[in-house]
Amino acid sequence: MKTGRAWRVGIKDFLMMSGNRQRPHLKGPSWLILLVCFISIFLIGLYIYPPRNTAACYIFFSSGCSGHGDGPSVPSRELTDEETAARVVITEILKSPLVESKNPKVAFMFLTPGPLPFEMLWDKFFQGNEGRFTVYVHASRGQANFVSPHFIGRNIRSEKVDWGKISMIDAEKRLLMNALQDPDNQHFALLSDSCVPLQPFDYVYNYLIFTNVSFIDCYDDPGPHGAGGRYTEPMLPEIEYKYFRKGSQWFTMTRRHALIIMADSLYYKKFRLYCRPGMPEGRNCYADEHYFQTLFYMVDPSGISNWSVTYVDWSERKWHPRSYKPQDITTKLLRNITAFDTSLHYTSDAKKTVLKTPCIWNGMRRPCFLFARKFFPETLDNWMKIFPNSTTF
């Protein structure tokens, strides 16, 4: 019963006890001033030292609470049946323990129009690591022919992909559904035909397998190339403006998050209908830059890194990132890229803000990037010469 008594000791008891110890010089509203001071000190303490994984945390600081796997936040409105069903499924996936694999593998998923210009570089990357990876190739313009044994027979059924349209997301989902059929695949990396590896296989494998977050690029861009120009009200009520996020499409993803993508139809439908090029009022929206980013910011924000492990140079701030030519490929370039431990994002509003995200891996500052793009095919020979043989993780 001591617990019950302690719970009942509240403000009223505090005032009664204060009343029994009144001093002559405390007149008028002095007790009220003391009460306000007490509450102010309490709230300041909560702000400086917010509680974690407690009811108090979610009452006072819902946006700052840690809780990977706790599921979507408590809604502020009555949900539709479809939303409730979606939240139930997503919450169950986040909370359910995954079957551990005795031989965890990384699924390397290549999204390409046709052949892979860097096939032999990837072959060099994979050599000697059989049994720790799987390869899947989505060639949208027809089956690609390969020479490397690591790629032969790894084409999946593919369909046409149009840049900026929902077919890009469909292709990524097609890669994921094929890779998920192997229960040993625990982490899934999406790569393009212009991607190259920056680190040896062991480094990449340890980086991805021994983390429990998905490396999904995600940031708030209020400008015309972000929420300010691409969000539309028909996405309501399921997707509010404040949740709309942007980021690179080149992700790596945990098995749990890959399952959520397979299970989701509600939020996918919103992006299929209302995020596309040529929308009303001259708006253009590109689902591959917003769907995964917005979805996971809504349902599991603590489960994503907010930066991509694939390096892309957007510093020129054009429609497309910088493309590298043979003369650019040097050991100095490789050292520079692999030394970055901060990821940069550039907003498209008038402020042109540079957002800096430190690259934190399991609580430690680490280099950000495992892969890089975009490189012209004729850079292959130079990459074969400088690709590292070993790197300490």
TrEMBL record:
Keyword annotations of the record: Glycoprotein, Glycosyltransferase, Membrane, Transferase, Transmembrane, Transmembrane helix
GO MF annotation: an example: glycosyltransferase activity
Keyword Glycosyltransferase: yes
InterPro entries according to UniProt: BC10-like, Glyco_trans_14
Superkingdom assignment: Eukaryota
Membrane topology: Single-pass type II membrane protein
Gene Ontology cellular component terms for the protein in this record: membrane
Residues passing through the membrane, by range: 31-49
Subcellular location: Membrane
Pfam families assigned to the protein according to its UniProt record, in alphabetical order: Branch
Stated name of the protein: Core-2/I-branching beta-1,6-N-acetylglucosaminyltransferase family protein
Protein species of origin: Artemisia annua (Sweet wormwood)
